[in-house]
Design a protein that fits this description.
It catalyses: L-aspartate 4-semialdehyde + pyruvate = (2S,4S)-4-hydroxy-2,3,4,5-tetrahydrodipicolinate + H2O + H(+). This protein has about 300 residues and is α/β, with parallel strands linked by helices. The protein is built from twelve helices and eight strands. Strands 1-2-3-4-5-6-7-8 form an eight-stranded parallel β-barrel, surrounded by five helices.
Length: about 300
Amino acid sequence: MTYAPSSAPPFGRALCAMITPFTEEGALDLDGAQRLADRLVREGCDGLVLSGTTGESPTTSDAEKAALVRAVREAVGDRAALVAGVGTADTRHTVELTLEAEKAGADGVLVVTPYYSRPPQDALEAHFREVADASGLPVMLYDIPGRTGTRIEPDTMVRLAGHPRIVAVKDCSYDFLGTQKVLSRTELAYYAGCDEHILALYAVGAAGYVSTVANVAPARLRAILDAFDAGDTATAARLQRRATPLIEAMMSAGLPGTVTAKALLTHLGHPAGPVRPPLRPADEDTVSSLREAYDTLTSHGARH
């Protein structure tokens, strides 16, 4: 028996939260972005999320964000969905970025909860509705209270699900019960935004994942979903467990995933470049730990 998620995946199932490659001088590396995007799609990604947290959106300009979408669209064509991160702390600015992403060729936008100002739930709802009303693009809400300081509460999610262009959620809430409540009451397509939750959320009806670890191991994570879809839940669980040391090394070692992903990509010879300040590169001990975790995962054969 095969598995079908309860929500249709509007942007595919296996999405990578792609890093933004820079040159050694710190400029946007569009050629590197095109080569990285092409590799990620060839190795199993259905979609790419650009200019999100992992894509260093706080330190890229509006023009760079639009240029990145255009370049990646040229590289991948219609082989993958492109979701552009447009979230800011300012509703007006977020609307402007949404319109620019639409012009640049994005298939959807990722809209994070406005940060720092900590708006109440009614203000959050109004913010997301204004952004969704501004363009023809479908919207993926980004719930990550650990960074923004504000949760999109389940009841707010349920109300927002009634908007025709609010179709998906990148879930970094760490509230498994709250997520299941929304899944049971709406048709929103949930994407695990924390790699350790890929299988757990998928098993209760999520659409897939938006993964930072997929920058370095796209086929390994895609294999988890493929095994579950084929009805082989034991293999899916084994593959999730097998990926755990790399997930922990990249996402729970005290450094942002951007830093660890770029360090490992550089080691593997893929486009990455430096991070922009205030982020700093990983030290040698961290890089050594990342290499060890990656080598352990990839020593287990091509996909299993």
